[in-house]
Amino acid sequence: MMKWLIAVLVSSTIWQSALASDLLASSPSLSHIVSTGEITIGHRSSEIPFSYLVNGQPIGYAIDLCLEVINALQENLGLNELNVTFVPLTPANRFILVGNGTVDIECGVTTNTPERRRQAAFSYPHFLTATRYVSLAEKQMNSLQDLAGQSVVSTTGTVNIAQLNELNRTQGLNISVMLSRNHEEAFTMVASGQAAAFVMDDILLAGLIASAPNSAAFRISEATLSNTEPYGLMMPSDDPVFVAQVNKALGDIYQSGSIYTLYDKWFVQPIPPDNRVLNLPLAQSLPLYLPILSSTKNEVDYDAPTYIIPGM
């Protein structure tokens, strides 16, 4: 019995070693990760609840998801230890730092669009969002026409700017488009009356409102400036083997059901730093995208979503 068990363990070790060797030979990212014993996560500073800083430490839904993926990669590569380094990213530099190899994987809120897939590779989606706007509730703004003649802000380096400009051009709304360096600055401009509205991903607007001391003073529009778009973990465009391994890990997380616990932790339960609650239970929230994985290949047709848990 003992000899049989030892033989099985040795065979398993040899198989895993051969698998890791094949992966390294065909993946620049995995080869670099193994040779350095380190993987670099790109994070955001204030994208509540996905990727943000508390006491200098990156936390959030996307961060936790990435860390689970990294645990799976470490096991598949047969590494006893894998150090994680965090690098801060902004909307303006995220594609540059992923593309030049400074960051192995971005764990944040980058929407996966056809245009962006020409610059980077994306994992299976982990959330769906649409572009809306936030305004002061007292202004009673809710439709796209309510933006006509107003000063409207959005953040530099985001797709939301292009969507706002397209709306302004096609519908002749005479909007004065303003640019902000980050989401907090744009939100503050709305709070102070400097801008009538802030156009951004709706879930990020919900996070900003939840963090505001006077959250009841703000309102997110029912009208959208975009179709629903997926967030994905972003990776270099030239390493499909690395992307496949990340998707394999994500697929295991989705199919095991642990994604629901993770969702509840960040969208329903109190979150750091001040225990505010977003109060977005899955049945009422933005849809959480869970792709049905093929049993023979890890692929998703991003232009034809396979399965969406019903949401808002």
Provide a descriptive summary of the structure in words.
- It is a single chain.
- By secondary structure, this protein is an alpha/beta fold.
- The protein has 2 domains: 27-129 and 229-312, D-Maltodextrin-Binding Protein, domain 2 (3-Layer(aba) Sandwich); 131-220, Periplasmic binding protein-like II (D-Maltodextrin-Binding Protein, domain 2), CATH 3.40.190.
- The protein has 9 helices and 13 strands.
- A 5-stranded mixed β-sheet has the order 10-9-11-8-12, with helices on both faces. Strands 5-1-6 form a 3-stranded parallel β-sheet. The chain has a 3-stranded antiparallel β-sheet with strand order 2-3-4.
- Helix 5 links the parallel strand 9 and strand 10 (176-180).
- Helix 3 (61-76) crosses helix 8.
- The longest helix is centred in the first third of the chain and has 25 residues, at 2-26.
- 40% of the residues are buried.
Radius of gyration: 21 Å
Query: Which architecture name of the largest domain does CATH use?
Result: 3-Layer(aba) Sandwich
| Total tally of structural domains | 2
Instruction: Name the helix and strand elements from N-terminus to C-terminus, one letter apiece.
Output: HHEEEEHEHEEEEHEHEHEEHH
**Helical proportion, percent range:** 25-40%
Please give the CATH class of the largest domain: Alpha Beta
The whole-number mean of residue pLDDT values reads 86
CATH level-4 homologous superfamily of the largest domain: Periplasmic binding protein-like II
Number of helices: 9
Largest sheet: 5 strands, mixed
Low-confidence stretches: 1-16, 292-312
Tell me how many strands there are: 13
The name CATH uses for the topology of the largest domain is D-Maltodextrin-Binding Protein, domain 2
